[in-house]
Automatic annotation (TrEMBL):
Annotated SET domain residues: 14-247
Record-given protein name: SET domain-containing protein
Upper taxonomic lineage: Eukaryota, Fungi, Dikarya, Ascomycota, Pezizomycotina
InterPro entries registered for this protein in UniProt: SET_dom, SET_dom_sf, SETD3_SETD6_MTase, SETD4_SET
Alphabetical list of PROSITE patterns matching this protein: SET
Highest rank taxon of the organism: Eukaryota
Recorded GO MF terms: protein-lysine N-methyltransferase activity
Amino acid sequence: MQAYDELIHWATDQGIEVHGIEAKMMPGRGLGMVASKDIEANERLIYVPTSSLRSLTTVRSKIRHALPPPAPNNKGTPVHALLAADLTLETPFAAIKYSAWHAIVPTRDEIFSSLPLAWPPSDYDKLHSLLPFQARTHLSKQKAKFEKDWELIRDVVFPALEMPPNRGTTYKQRFLYNWLLVNTRTFYHETPKTERLSKDDKMILQPVADLLNHADEGCEVSFDLACFTITADRDYKQGEEICICYGRHSNDFLMVEYGFCPEENKWDEVCIDEVVLEEMTNEQKQKLEEKGFLGGYMIDERTPGGCYRTRVALMLKCVSSAEWERLVDEGEDGGEEVKRLVDRVVVKVLKKYLKKCKGAIGELKQLGSSAEMVLKRWRQIQKAVEDSLGELELVVVDDRSD
Ligand SMILES: C[S@@+](CC[C@H](N)C(=O)[O-])C[C@H]1O[C@@H](n2cnc3c(N)ncnc32)[C@H](O)[C@@H]1O
């Protein structure tokens, strides 16, 4: 693959080393890295010297100096915005320096067709309203973050660089593309300079290693002041894909942040906040908030009857408010009788959620290919809810026949 060969040629000049792996087109996941020979656990696959990273310190000084520096507690300018601005307003010198990287990263069309934040405005509102709760909430936050970053660049950086006004839309789209490139390709990195910044600001771009796709478990990623290294977590056969784990994320999170919804994900969970909170009166919501139990209600394979938070919240529908407070304060579940009552309420809310799933699926089917990923997600949710109901109804039915 010519673009990859050129990237490796350039990378070698930067001191980057790549051993026993090579890039390959992976159906449905863009480029990925596969073993070009049998690999043993603990073999070092990629070595990237710190000098070849794109970070806060490599951002063009005119951009950096135009804005307040990043500061602890998410104060100051986000590093994400700075890196994206640096890519958008790249000098001809930097564009040439990084041309091998630009040639291999996904194109604007590829990025825009996969990531919800870039859904065309005509589809955005409709698809956004049809996203599962967790994805919808996450996308709203991401959109707010992007718009804030864009305003900083438009209102502060453009004038500082003496750019003519009124180039808004074109540049906004370019900034969005680069913002999403940064979002999907950065790695966590800390140096004495960035140590006091918040976790979100400890991000860098690294060429070559950013070709690694995500899996539930993957190679070890480590760094020190001198370099980044990627090390094989296990033996691999020649031709096998080499992945890293981007984090223990749900499919809703992966869809919004990375633009894909995996078939298998052992870290997946389904958020049922919507239907749980619909059951609650305002007074009950206030109680939940006071005790730190408002929201974050999940089901997954391990907890078909709802996670601890779900069960604590729904216990409020089964006992008096005073008794609920006592049980919560003492960390008790109320015993078998209350557990059975909670199971019944869980069945009730899951049935409600199942209706929502079916409704969303029906609507998404009308929308064509732009809705495919969301449709796939709702089908996964439907299955998870049905599986949970299957298990719970056994308990509830058994219990009724006592
Ligand atoms: C860091 S890049 C990995 C390299 C990327 N595939 C490429 O073509 O350059 C992250 C992006 O790769 C894709 N990706 C990563 N892991 C994936 C997976 N397990 N399934 C589908 N797409 C995946 C997503 O588009 C994601 O935003």
